[in-house]
């Protein structure tokens, strides 16, 4: 065996494991394309439902195709009683990501087509999950606040309805647009850890709900989706812009990872951050919270100055979701409600040209020995 055969790629860094037609993350040009379209254009001009269709089908929908998807999504928003009971049965001490993970599993167990992995059945399951996740996330936040559930409305788009079932009203269009932009930006990002998890599970010919359940678990971690929640904890710890540089010096001296900064692929900045920061600015103006933007900018410039490590998408979404009124532990479930589109597109792509994902490892344990 040659040396290159045995080279270890810790964390699979830099390893290309397969092809994909779904999205392209290009660190050199700082660009992110969904099926060829720049994500910035999609965020400015398209609804989240159009983006979901694009990810699943490869092309933007015609008016009729969009109407069909919207009708299917809107008609499946109400949660069945078994899902509601499953959510309500979980302790409020559990993390909301545990609730979402459990709910996806329960949805799979009750889905009569769970074991049908044809593309047609998987597409239908993907739309159902897209339709149901907002209800799960909203129900969980509301029960923790001692509030009754709010019934979904089928006269509202995905984002408007999501905010309606969470807060009991549709907020100002500025808030809806910022939320919609976050959904579009979070939807897909090639072979990130949670999507790769979903593809590994799909590659064993397990079912789509199992793949999504595993992906939720992978997204929960603070090195991945859990960072949006952690950013808000950081902001709360720092308190104000004036304290940001001193706080950062202490944190770096204690070898802490600064959440919302850095990225495995983007080393010169996350292509999605400028777009989400623009939405954050609209929220700051709407809620009259310049202090939040000052803190955001102060920590970013201190981090750039000290380490030249730039923010990732979780950095602007954290304060944006806070201003919208979401509880901090609900932030990563919001990521799930968007990324469900990318995960399921990848499950279908994996199954379209499947090969069991099973890498090798280099054994470094004890030599062969006999049981005494
Ligand atoms: C939507 C998303 O999932 S985006 C990612 C969200 N995650 C976060 O925001 C968590 C904070 N960031 C990190 O932990 C990392 O940047 C990761 C995990 C995202 C990427 O990590 P990797 O590509 O493995 O980079 P790696 O950890 O090797 O970092 C290289 C160097 O930069 C440092 N570094 C990277 N990110 C950070 C950070 N956020 N804070 C402090 N130092 C950092 C590392 O400590 C390391 O320093 P060293 O060479 O002195 O040991
Ligand atoms: O690509 C990654 O490693 C993480 C990320 O930004 C995402 O999943 O959106």
Give the helices and strands, then pairings.
Elements: E1 23-26, E2 31-34, E3 37-38, H1 39-45, H2 48-57, H3 63-75, H4 81-89, H5 96-110, H6 119-144, H7 158-167, H8 173-186, H9 193-203, H10 208-220, H11 227-238, H12 244-253, H13 273-287, H14 290-307, H15 314-324, H16 331-352
Antiparallel strand pairs: 1-2, 2-3
Helix pairs in contact: 1-8, 2-16, 3-6, 4-5, 4-6, 5-6, 5-10, 6-7, 6-16, 7-8, 8-13, 8-15, 8-16, 9-10, 9-16, 10-16, 11-15, 12-14, 13-14, 13-15
Bound molecules: acetyl coenzyme *A and oxaloacetate ion.
Acetyl coenzyme *A binds at residues 11, 222-225, 227, 257-264, 307, 309, 312-314.
Question: Can I get a quick summary?
Answer:
The protein has 16 helices and 3 strands. The protein has 372 residues and is mainly alpha-helical.
Any overview of this molecule?
β2 and β3 (37-38) form a beta hairpin. This protein has 372 residues and is mainly α. The protein has helices spanning 39-45, 48-57, 63-75, 81-89, 96-110, 119-144, 158-167, 173-186, 193-203, 208-220, 227-238, 244-253, 273-287, 290-307, 314-324, 331-352, and strands at 23-26, 31-34, 37-38. 43% of the residues are buried. α2 (48-57) runs parallel beside α16 (331-352) and α13 (273-287) packs parallel to α15. Helix content is 58%, strand content 3%. It has a three-stranded antiparallel β-sheet with strand order 1-2-3. The chain contains 16 helices and three strands. It has two domains: 36-220 and 332-352, Citrate Synthase, domain 1; 227-323, Cytochrome P450-Terp, domain 2 (Cytochrome p450-Terp, domain 2). The longest helix is centred in the middle third of the chain and has 26 residues, at 119-144. It binds acetyl coenzyme *A and oxaloacetate ion. Residues 189, 192, 263-265, 312-313 line the site of oxaloacetate ion (OAA). Pathway: Carbohydrate metabolism; tricarboxylic acid cycle; isocitrate from oxaloacetate: step 1/2. Keywords: Transferase, Tricarboxylic acid cycle. Belongs to the citrate synthase family. The active site is at residues 263, 314. This is Citrate synthase.
């Amino acid at each position: 065996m040659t040396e290159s055969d045995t080279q270890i790629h810790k964390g699979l860094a830099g390893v290309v494991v397969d092809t994909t037609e779904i999205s392209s993350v290009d660190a050199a040009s700082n660009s992110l394309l969904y099926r060829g379209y720049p994500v910035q254009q999609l965020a400015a001009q398209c609804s989240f439902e159009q983006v979901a269709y694009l990810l699943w089908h490869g092309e933007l929908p015609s008016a009729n195709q969009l109407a069909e998807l919207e009708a299917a999504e809107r008609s499946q928003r109400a949660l069945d009683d078994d899902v509601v009971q499953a959510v309500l049965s979980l302790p409020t001490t559990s993390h909301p990501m545990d609730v979402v993970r459990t709910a996806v599993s329960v949805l799979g167990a009750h889905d009569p087509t769970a074991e049908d992995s044809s593309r047609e059945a998987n597409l239908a399951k993907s739309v159902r999950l897209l339709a149901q996740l907002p209800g799960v996330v909203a129900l969980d936040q509301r029960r923790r606040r001692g509030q009754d559930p709010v019934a979904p409305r089928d006269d509202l788009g995905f984002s408007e309805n999501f905010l309606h079932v969470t807060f009991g009203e549709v907020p100002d269009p500025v808030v809806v647009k910022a939320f919609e932009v976050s959904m579009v930006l979070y939807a897909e990002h090639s072979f990130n850890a949670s999507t790769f998890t979903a593809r590994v599970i799909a590659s064993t010919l397990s079912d789509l709900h199992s793949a999504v359940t595993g992906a939720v678990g992978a997204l929960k971690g603070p090195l991945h989706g859990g960072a949006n929640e952690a950013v808000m904890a950081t902001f709360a710890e720092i308190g104000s812009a004036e304290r940001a540089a001193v706080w950062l010096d202490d944190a770096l001296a204690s070898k802490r990872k600064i959440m919302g900064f850095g990225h495995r692929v983007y080393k010169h900045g996350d292509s999605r951050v400028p777009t989400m920061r623009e939405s954050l600015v609209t929220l700051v103006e709407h809620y009259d919270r310049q202090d939040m933007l000052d803190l955001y900018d102060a920590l970013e410039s201190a981090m750039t100055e000290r380490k030249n490590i730039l923010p990732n998408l979780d950095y602007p979404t954290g304060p944006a979701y806070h201003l919208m009124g979401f509880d901090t532990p609900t932030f990563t479930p919001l990521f799930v409600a968007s990324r469900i589109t990318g995960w399921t597109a990848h499950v279908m792509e994996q199954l379209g040209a499947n090969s069991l994902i099973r890498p090798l490892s280099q054994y470094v344990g004890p030599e062969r020995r006999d049981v005494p």
